[in-house]
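Issue: ligand-bound run for pyridoxal-5'-phosphate - logging full I/O for the record.

Environment: standard queue, default settings, no custom constraints.

Inputs:
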Amino acid sequence: MTDTMLCESLASARQRLADAAARAGRPAESVRLLAVSKTKPAERIREAWQLGQREFGENYVQEALDKQAALVDLPDIVWHFIGPLQSNKTRAVAEHFAWVHSVDREKVARRLNDQRPAGLGPLNVCLQVNVSDEATKSGVHLADLATLAQAVQALPRLRLRGLMAIPAPAEGLAAQREPLARLRQAFEELQARYPKAPLDTLSMGMSDDLEAAVLEGATLVRLGSAIFGSRDTPTR
Ligand SMILES: *Cc1c(COP(=O)(O)O)cnc(C)c1O
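Outputs:
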């Protein structure tokens, strides 16, 4: 992909997001754009940064650390970890990311809390929820969400910001909205239970279901292929 193409695809992703917000009757600024850069080289991220993009999502720890090292000169870049998180990888994530979207069990949350360096602010956390049951393995089930949220909420080095989901692929707006609506409802229940917590992030919507997610109240959408083109082979 050339720079011109990235410039165009980023502009059209931003436009798509603005159109989706307008259609949902929401201000465009109410939805943040996370650029998912997994499998893409550091140079593509640098180009996107030069085009004004600041928040990037990565799925594989080692790949992300390599790119972060190549991009240390970029001020105000914000790294989000969005991939499956094994407990033996929590230290690197606690030390090198501002956000984690994929916390789905207490053990991982405790390790992130214990390993978050004192010199950094609390790690921003979204709990990953399994809203499509059998289809995906990752994510806490809705029935267990309240217990996990309570545990995370009590950890001082974590800041519980909201919920994330990756629904099973579905065709058509109505079918796409269904699981997203469940996540939104769970999010609203959480906000009601912890009225003083900074619960402001509903992380849902990818390249194929962005419009449905914005209609259901997403505050952060995670776009990969819509910005960077189809995925390269993972470098894990
Ligand atoms: C890869 C990935 C995305 C981006 O997916 P696209 O369909 O390419 O937009 C978003 N969220 C997560 C958790 C991902 O792993």
